[in-house]
Amino acid sequence: xxxxxxxxxxxxxxxxxxxxxxxxxxxxxxxxxxxxxxxxxxxxxxxxxxxxxxxxxxxxxxxxxxxxxxxxxxxxxxxxxxxxxxxxxxxxxxxxxxxxxxxxxxxxxxxxxxxxxxxxxxxxxxxxxxxxxxxxxxxxxxxxxxxxxxxxxxxxxxxxxxxxxxxxxxxxxxxxxxxxxxxxxxxxxxxxxxxxxxxxxxxxxxxxxxxxxxxxxxxxxxxxxxxxxxxxxxxxxxxxxxxxxxxxxxxxxxxxxxxxxxxxxxxxxxxxxxxxxxxxxxxxxxxxxxxxxxxxxxxxxxxxxxxxxxxxxxxxxxxxxxxxxxxxxxxxxxxxxxxxxxxxxxxxxxxxxxxxxxxxxxxxxxxxxxxxxxxxxxxxxxxxxxxxxxxxxxxxxxxxxxx
Length: 403
What we know:
Elements: H1 6-14, E1 22-26, E2 39-40, E3 50-51, E4 55-58, E5 69-76, E6 90-94, E7 106-109, E8 113-116, E9 119-122, E10 132-133, E11 144-146, H2 154-162, E12 167-171, E13 175-181, E14 185-186, E15 197-198, H3 201-211, E16 215-222, H4 226-238, E17 243-247, H5 258-264, E18 268-271, E19 276-277, E20 283-287, E21 290-295, H6 299-317, E22 327-332, E23 343-352, E24 358-362, H7 371-376, E25 379-383, E26 395-400
Parallel strand pairs: 5-6, 13-16, 13-17, 14-15, 17-21, 19-23, 22-24
Antiparallel strand pairs: 1-12, 2-11, 3-10, 4-6, 4-7, 5-9, 8-9, 18-20, 20-21, 22-26, 23-24, 23-25, 25-26
Helix pairs in contact: 1-6, 3-6, 4-5
């Protein structure tokens, strides 16, 4: 099979990916969930004119000149309105958040008054509407303030609460099952034997999927046998996974059994080689509603492919508005050689110049097994196939990595 261009591979991964359905969750469980429908305000905020300051509610015409004197007739506090009305020559003590009483059209702050018992002397002329939050200044009942597809932030939750929504309609989270393969893998904390390495891929993959709003299922590490591989695939199906992500065993060697296991379980393969670096031996297929992404075993290849393909798929399945990674413009921090037929995703650090321009500095060693360089990178520097040699200062495009 010929190497598939990255854009074609991504289109295949996203083909038919639609939001998974709606569910209702309590407001305190809605953080970073994706709205399934528009949400409108159930109330007007504030429902009545409110004082923005501590002071006195007055008729502006009665307090238009300095040393005007008014008679104090009552008090307003938040949640305790004044039952009467402010008439000529009268004032009502009012606190922040108090309902402006009938008849009043201004608030004089307490620092601009002198009080002597029931007499109030004005030291700063009142202005109609001053220090008053009019009814509906924030929003009005029926206003659509949260839109379908919004991934809810902490501020969105505060807004939803103010709109009087104790629950919100959200898209169901995609369930991503992650299966590693390889006899050479041992868990962190163990002492590797001859030829063994510490398993690291899954920790990044689980974190990356969860950051994008998915629930994850850990299927562990399968031994390098067809039976163990197919058993892991079956467990993914039994868990109700929307996406199965495998890591390792994606090549075509005698011990790379993932593709054999996938085909044995009836998974229709879309591709298994991509024209990219790192990550050439990546696979994709479908088994009914379950989508399968087979990642390479090298840690950097695994992460880069997950970032480029798994993340957009999770976003599409969860109904997010922005699915694709946004490319940013930068300039090269060092010379780069000409590229071959594969699209390169170079790990790079990012610097900000005094003039505001971004400088991408590719790390010196781009081997797909080097975790330290991956952890130090802030962006992926994208080099198209057959890109010519480029000198430092030349324009380039980067994809920011999660922080």
